[in-house]
Amino acid sequence: MSSMDRGLNELLKWSIENASTTTNDPDAAPPENRGLNADALAALFGGPSEADLMKAAMAVIMARDDGDSNTTTTLDDKLVAFDNLEQLVESLDNANLLERLSLWTPLLGVLESEEPDLRRMAAWCIGTAVQNNRATQERLVALGGIPRLVALAAGAGEPAAVRRKAIYALSSACRNYQPALDAYLAALPAAHRGRGGGDREGDLPPVDATDMDAVDAVFSSLKADYQAAEAAEAAKKAAPAAAADTTS
């Protein structure tokens, strides 16, 4: 069946369901699912599907500068594309499309970008995609994404905003998914191995991924570090303004 035929089928089903409600009982509540499938509408009216939009966003994110000022993709273009992708993967179905569309590998690759803002957006997008989603949590672990995120979250030279989103991604991946939590604990640097934020080295005791308090505890040291970095960055930005006030 062609995409146009599928779209017409969806439209026909929708019209019958809604017409039958009002015909049989004008006072009846509308059916629970009155909306048309987004991909069916796209096929019917010729617009891009959400899968197409996800691929297009990743194409912009991965675009290289070819030296042509007419075709150069700017950092702002990439950030807008990432923002669009992050909003798309808020949908469970779209998050699951990351694997089918072969987008996981390039997405994880951006965690190693030279641009801090791209690293931040990649971590944010990952965190959104894996939240409460066993299938995407599994993919993240299988593709080695946890150690990469830990490297960002614990990186002393990383901007606080990057570290914050990396912690968000790790927290989303680890909650209620034991393999991700085990991978996180295995990758955690020695300085962060105290469950309450201490400096104990060695193996951590087992932590249950369904115990939210215990999961929070193993992130406390990383969170304290990024918050300190955030405060230091804010103080550094405020210093010139304070100096100007004293000389005026």
User: Globular, elongated, flat, extended or rod-shaped: what is the shape?
Assistant: globular
Number of helices: 12
Please report the first level of CATH classification, the CATH class of the largest domain. Mainly Alpha
CATH homologous superfamily heading of the largest domain: Leucine-rich Repeat Variant
- Low-confidence sequence ranges: 195-200
What is the percentage of strand-forming residues?
under 5%
Q: Count every beta strand, where a strand is a DSSP E run of 2 or more residues.
A: 0
SSE series: HHHHHHHHHHHH
- Calculate Rg over CA atoms: 23 Å
Main beta-sheet strand count, sense and barrel state: none
Task: State the distance separating the first and last CA atoms.
Answer: 75 Å
Oligomer: single chain
Give the tally of structural domains. 2
- What is the CATH T-level topology of the largest domain? Leucine-rich Repeat Variant
Helix content: 55-70%
Structural class: mainly alpha
CATH architecture of the largest domain: Alpha Horseshoe
How would you describe this protein?
Helix content is 67%, strand content 0%. Residues 195-200 have low confidence and may be disordered. It is mainly alpha-helical and 248 residues long. Helix 1 (3-24) crosses helix 2 (38-45), helix 4 runs parallel beside helix 7 (116-130) and helix 9 (145-153) packs across helix 11 (178-187). The protein is globular, with a radius of gyration of 23 Å.
